[in-house]
UniProtKB/TrEMBL annotation:
This is TRAP transporter small permease protein. The chain crosses the membrane at residues 29-50, 62-80, 101-122, 142-159. It comes from the Bacteria. Belongs to the TRAP transporter small permease family. Residues 38-167 form the Tripartite ATP-independent periplasmic transporters DctQ component domain. One of its GO terms (biological process) is C4-dicarboxylate transport.
């Protein structure tokens, strides 16, 4: 992260701010809302337990379920940004004529796996409709609906990545950064 001045000497401190690009995606806003709802529920639990010395019963359970929701919807954000953990070492040592088919296979497997997750999330959501939450008499399918929503959003992003890679014919993405700093 060095800037080159007119004398071409590298400097460690940059005085130019990078241009901020604000994107509005559904999963960002959902995660934002769920996160702050989770923060409010956890604060309510803390306040009632340690200040009022009389804990509200439903806060721990709802916080756990909101954490499940934010995990799966947050996975969609990681999918969109390409920041999921992956093993890329093999690609770096292979010739380009073998890397492109490998990227194609990876994309097909990814779309297939996420589609399978969508299928299983529908099945588990339907099956869990008869079971109720422990403290609140709501069906557990509400909790698993968040898993399904996250899986379907990931599927949408997986198809987008597949189409983008197909347009480049599975060549290296020139816009991809190796280090993402928000």
């Amino acid at each position: 992260m060095t800037d080159l001045k007119t004398d071409d000497t590298p400097h460690l401190i940059s005085t130019v701010d990078p241009e901020v690009k604000i994107e509005h995606h559904v999963e960002d806003w959902l995660s934002f809302g769920i996160f702050w709802t989770l923060a409010g529920v956890v604060f309510l639990q803390f306040f009632t337990r340690y200040v009022l010395n009389d804990s509200v019963a439903w806060t721990e359970e709802i916080a756990r379920y909101l954490l499940i929701w934010i995990t799966f919807i947050g996975a969609t954000i990681s999918f969109r940004r390409g920041t999921h953990i992956s093993v890329e070492m093999l690609q770096h040592f292979m010739p380009e004529k073998l890397v492109r088919p490998l990227r194609f296979v990876i994309d097909v497997l990814t779309v297939g796996f996420v589609a399978l997750l969508c299928w299983f999330s529908i099945a588990i959501t339907e099956r869990m409709h008869i079971q109720t939450m422990t403290v609140i008499e709501w069906p557990m399918s509400i909790v698993y609906a968040g898993v399904g929503l996250g899986c379907f959003l990931m599927f949408y992003r997986a198809v987008q990545v597949f189409i983008a890679n197909a347009r480049r014919r599975w060549a290296e993405d020139p816009a991809k950064q190796t280090l993402i700093i928000d």
